[in-house]
Structures are given as structure tokens and as C-alpha cells.
Amino acid sequence: MISRVADHCFWFGRYVERAEATARMLGAASSLALDAELPPAQVWRPVIVVTGEEQQFRESQAGDTDDHPAWGDAELVQRFMVWAEHNGSSLHQTLRAARWNARSIREVLSLETWEAINELHLWSDSSGAQTIYANHRDQFYHHVRRGTQLALGLMRSTMLHDEPLDFIWLGVLLERVSQTARMLDVQHHAFTAASKNPTGGEIIETALWLSLLRALSGSEAYLKRSAGRVSSDAVARFLVSEAAFPRSIAYCVHSAYDRLADIRPPDRHDLPGGSALEQLRVLDVWVTARGKEPLGSSVHDLLTHVVDEVHEICGLLGKELLGAA
């Protein structure tokens, strides 16, 4: 496979996963705003911070001040995260990028996968999507989630399980690691504030943890593992170390290593990609070891390390396998 095709496959996977994660996060924040007695900024600011667009968001809002930050306005945050052309992480821009990469590798995608992502992109460009967004916000986010999940499922069930799918799924998994780590880390600030609230603090904290689990499609899986008990340590450990949950950090890192090892076998020293594979192997071993230790106050340091390592691994992949400059 030539590096140009591999690069488009990798980024197609990342953008599809990113669109689904953003839609889930926005949907969960909308529910949290209704269910928990929290200041609007405490609900909506994490959505901006997770995507790394905090500074750009503030600069794009003319009335934004330290006393009246714009991220306290739910509508402003949602429009920025759904429609903003200047926000590369908005749903509209992410779906456009996913479709552009898919069109570039049309010859390696199955017809069903191409149709699913193309139809979702065309829908997001339509007046019908604007109407649903205006009148049925939850339905809008649900439609994006279902469309991206359909594309992800069709890849696995209609494409040959060879190098193109390996690169696509490697992108999905590394994007998923980063999304889980960032969301868990950023929400920690809201949890800390809630725990200091003398009135209803425990109830609000539980609502926050459940909102995070819903944003990661993990509430049902967690409750089955925990017999219905919700605690900060248990949720954090589940999202970091649960080997059977497909969005946990441990599961995704290990699966990403397996994918890259299929693409570039560890014993093939004549092939490029050795540095990325080794760094991913080391991260896999490190994350597995953390699962045997108490997390305690080290959660932030652990998640920061994971995000930084994934960023470096993606950079190495770009240089060694994907033809990036």
C-alpha cells in the first residue's frame, strides 16, 4: 500500500471516530444541563476544552469576557461545536474531512461504507439537518451518532480485513484513546467543584460521572461491572483499565498495538514503522501496569502521559508510514 492511501485511511478512521465522540459529548452535556443543578459554564466549558479549541472559541465570541465567559451560553457553545467553519473540530467540519478522505480512497472502501459516510455528510449540509438541529437537538446528535456508527460497523462487516482496514481502525483506536483520556481528565475539574458543594454534592457528582459514562457509551457496561454503584475511583479505573470495554484506554491501546503489529510485524526490521510500534508497545505495557496500582490523585498525570504519548506515536506514524513531512 502506498503511503498516500495509508494516510487517507488513517485520517478517515480518526475523523469518523471524532465526529461520533463529539456528537455523544454534546448529547450528554445537553442531558446534564437538564438533570444537574450546575452553572452552565460548568456543563459546557469542558466540551470546548476537550477539543482543544478554548482559545479560538473565546476569540470568536465578541462579548466574551472573564466576568461573562461565552462558554456559559449553551447555544453559543453548541453552534461553535456543530456548525463553525473556522473550528476544525466542529461536527460539520469533521464530517466534511471524513468524507474528503473517504473520496480519496474510494477504491479501497466498500460501496456500503462510502454510501454511509457520503449520505451523512450530505445530510449535514442540508436544510433538513438545520431544521432538526433547531427543533429537536437530541435527535440531531442521535442521527450523527447512528450515521458514524453505521459507517464503523460497515467497515468491519463489508471490507476485506487487510491493510486498508488496519490503517482505518488504527486511526479509530488512537483517536478513541485520546478522546477518552481528554474527556476523563477535563471532567475532573467539574467533579472537584461538585465534591466541594455542601448542598447535594454527592448527588451532583454522581450525575457528572454518569454523564461522562454516557458520553463514552459506557454507562450500561460500567453499571454491570459495578453492580449499580457509582464512585469516582471506580469510574476512573473502569475507563482507564477495563480490558473488556472497547472504549477504555487499556483496551484501545492494546488493540492499536495489535493493529500496528499486523501492519508492521515486530520482527520485520527491514520495514519502516519500528519506532512507532515500539513506543506503542511501551505505552501498552505501561497502561497495563497502572491497572494493578491504586489511581488516587495520579489520574491527571496518567491521562496527560497517555495523551502526550498518543500524540507522539501519531507523529511517528506520519513520518515513518504515512508520508508526512
Record keyword descriptors for this entry.
mainly alpha; 325 residues; globular; 0% strand
Can you walk through the features of this model?
The structure is a single chain. The chain is an all-alpha fold. It is 74% helix and 0% strand. It has one domain. Helix 5 (91-104) runs antiparallel to helix 6 and helix 6 runs antiparallel to helix 8 (137-158).
Helices and strands in order, then pairings?
Blueprint: H1 3-35, H2 40-50, H3 54-60, H4 74-82, H5 91-104, H6 111-124, H7 127-135, H8 137-158, H9 163-195, H10 201-215, H11 219-226, H12 232-241, H13 249-263, H14 274-290, H15 299-320
Helix pairs in contact: 1-2, 1-5, 1-8, 1-9, 1-10, 2-9, 5-6, 6-8, 7-8, 9-10, 9-12, 9-13, 9-15, 13-14, 14-15
Mean pLDDT: 88
Helical content class: over 70%
The count of DSSP E runs of length 2 or more, i.e. the number of strands, is 0
What Rg do the Cα atoms give?
Answer: 20 Å
Helix and strand element order: HHHHHHHHHHHHHHH
Strand content: under 5%
Low-confidence runs of at least 5 consecutive residues: none
User: How many helix segments?
Assistant: 15
Structural class determined from secondary elements: mainly alpha
Strand count, sense and barrel status of the largest sheet are: none
End-to-end span in angstroms?
Answer: 18 Å
- Shape label: globular
Q: State the domain count.
A: 1
This entry's quaternary arrangement is single chain
